[in-house]
Amino acid sequence: MIAVVYVTGGILSVAVLLALYRAVRGPSILDRVLALDVVLAVIGAGLVLNMVLGRHLDNLVLLVAISLIGFIGSVTVARFVTDRK
Amino acid sequence: MINDVIVSILLIGGALMSLAAGIGLVRFPDLLSRMHAATKPQVLGLLLFLLALAVETGSWALVPLLVLCWIFQLLTSPVSAHMVGRAGYRTRHLRRDLLTLDELDDVVARAAATDPGRADRAGETRPEAGDGPT
Amino acid sequence: MSRQHIPLVTELPLVIWLVLVWGALWQDFSPGTLVFGAVIAYAVVNFFYLPPLELTGRFNVLWVIPFVGRFLYQLVIASAEVFWLALSKGPSLRSAVVAVPLRSSSDFLVTATGHAISLIPGSLVLEVDRSTSTLYLHCLHIDSEEDAEAIRRDVRATEVWLIRIMGSRADLRTLQTREARR
Predict the structure, then answer these.
(1) Is B100 helix (H, G, I), strand (E, B) or coil?
(2) How many domains does chain C contain in total?
(3) Helices (H), strands (E): how many in chain C?
(4) What is the 3-state secondary structure (H, E, C) of C3-19?
(5) CA distances from B16 to A7, A16, C84 (A)
(6) By residue range, what is the domain housing residue A33?
(7) Would you call C138 and B89 a contact, using CB atoms and an 8 Å cutoff?
(8) Which residue from A35, B86, C97, C129 could staple onto C134, CB 3.0 to 4.6 Å apart?
(9) CB–CB of C158/C71 below 8 Å?
């Protein structure tokens, strides 16, 4: 079981590194928002992994909060990008 | 034992979905195709992770909360994807040479031709009287 | 901030949904929790009101289960496909913006169809034209007109499912007569 957690964590780390590469490279602000959305999703996955490993449910609230932050963040940025001439 | 196997498969499957998002973000050529990779596999990824959590804890009282978590994601992710996609299309963040056909562009061009007042803000033109400011 | 009075019946689905959310958050569906949740839900609906959602007054539970099954199947297949495209095609990927005219003119159904389509990887709603209820989708990996036609068929099949689940009676009737003719 512990091996599985390491493998999962490894895959998630690669995913977050790829997303961060895109967030740094850009080219546009929408690309960065998208990449940071993926970073948030990976963080959420990490929280679930932590819950599975520790057999507790303390992070569920954080999970909901993170997905809400991602949603509000990307909608706000998209809104401003559309409105700016 | 059998639980461990299921949880392992679910966890690795969910992590692979995140990896798909990462690879797609880096390898796809323009904003809109990156969006497909970035937002959508996460829906399945979160589902697999939540299933893993449900199997691991094995309590039924938890299931509605996990379903709720997933439904929130189901409701929000298309909305944010649509907002970002629309902003990307209107601000011309897509590579036209990669599109095999673009039926929205024809409509936008026609609307701009019949309504010259809107032609100067071509990036903003709606196909028709649309859904108002959303 | 005045508003026209919205009858309780139109708000009922929203109230029930909020009560279910309340119960799920407390992880407790005992009567006490539900009653308190109902009080809070009623207060929330009345103080933070939204424009009334125009449901169609029909909801067929029998069609929901196969629809969810089809949805999950498509989700898994399409997610794997996007993964494979990212690995194999990468930068040389070609996509398209496809217009899909829908049958129903109800805002609710167009929204639901757009939502279901957006959730399945490989298609994304860019723009909606309400006057003709047309969805403009951005689709991955479209090489030819046939691929675009396949997407249109797929979207309209999804819409047919949604009409069967919760379309208005008029939409359902046109659907049935069309099928009978075929």
Answers:
(1) strand
(2) 2
(3) 6, 3
(4) CCCCCHHHHHHHHHHHH
(5) 10, 12, 11
(6) 2-83
(7) yes
(8) C129
(9) no
Place of tokens 């959508």: B40
How, if at all, do strands C134-139 and C95-101 pair? antiparallel
CB atoms < 10 A from the CB of C33, how many?
16
Q: What is the ipTM of this complex?
A: 0.84
Closest C-alpha to C178, from C161, C165, C160, C166: C160
- Cβ–Cβ under 8 Å, residues A33 and B83: no
pTM: 0.81
Per-residue pLDDT of A5-59, as tens digits, reads 889 999 999 999 998 998 888 778 888 888 888 898 899 889 988 888 888 888 8
Domain carrying residue C145: 61-181
Task: Tell me if C98 sits within 8 A of B104, measured CB to CB.
Answer: no
Option in B18, B52, B79 nearest A41 (CB)? B18
C-beta atoms of B64 and C27 within 8 A: yes
Q: What number of C-beta contacts closer than 8 Å exist between B and C?
A: 160
